[in-house]
């Protein structure tokens, strides 16, 4: 297993301390964010690059550009600025998330957004990691739809899928696309009372034996199909963010996944 860790797994740790924790856990790959915590809004990208190099850390992605599939207003400018930051910080990719407020976005608009974003990524040597969201109100739920749009936009080689085990489960997806997958987000839901259609980010904890999202079968299916990239922890639940010892909690989840596989 090749694990990565999203900064949202331990958002109260300053960046340097986060990197140190990642190394102690035996990992070298991370994702940084523009929300929890807002590294982009608080840290010069040159400092991020220098600290990552000092500690032997690879920054897989910056998470996330939203809503990438509504290419209007301030989005083009925000996309360019985020891409500039990614390049300056040494990040390899930008995570891109679709509109998630119940508004439908036409397939042609999705394709147009991918076409518009493509040169921004190419000019900076970045990959676009596009993450379908499985929520019922999401404007892009299915990975198969996204692949069609990437092909229509001529985006092969620039875009990859973000396979998120939470969103895969919520969308009721059964098909895996290992050759298209650039990164996998893992998190679990253990609350026995919440219906699948009512699951929210706030329910997402670290993967353990009570997980309802079938993380282990998803991980195994991806590995068996040839995916050889990292699996990045992305829990959103307050109980994870406020854990007294996030390092121990992450290690417990890592050990559980390894032993169960």
From TrEMBL:
<dbReference type="GO" id="GO:0016853">
    <property type="term" value="F:isomerase activity"/>
</dbReference>
<dbReference type="InterPro" id="IPR050312">
    <property type="entry name" value="IolE/XylAMocC-like"/>
</dbReference>
<dbReference type="InterPro" id="IPR014621">
    <property type="entry name" value="UCP036778_sugar_epimerase"/>
</dbReference>
<keyword id="KW-0413">Isomerase</keyword>
<dbReference type="InterPro" id="IPR036237">
    <property type="entry name" value="Xyl_isomerase-like_sf"/>
</dbReference>
<dbReference type="InterPro" id="IPR013022">
    <property type="entry name" value="Xyl_isomerase-like_TIM-brl"/>
</dbReference>
<feature type="domain" description="Xylose isomerase-like TIM barrel">
    <location>
        <begin position="19"/>
        <end position="259"/>
    </location>
</feature>
<dbReference type="Pfam" id="PF01261">
    <property type="entry name" value="AP_endonuc_2"/>
</dbReference>
<protein>
    <submittedName>
        <fullName>2-keto-myo-inositol isomerase</fullName>
    </submittedName>
</protein>
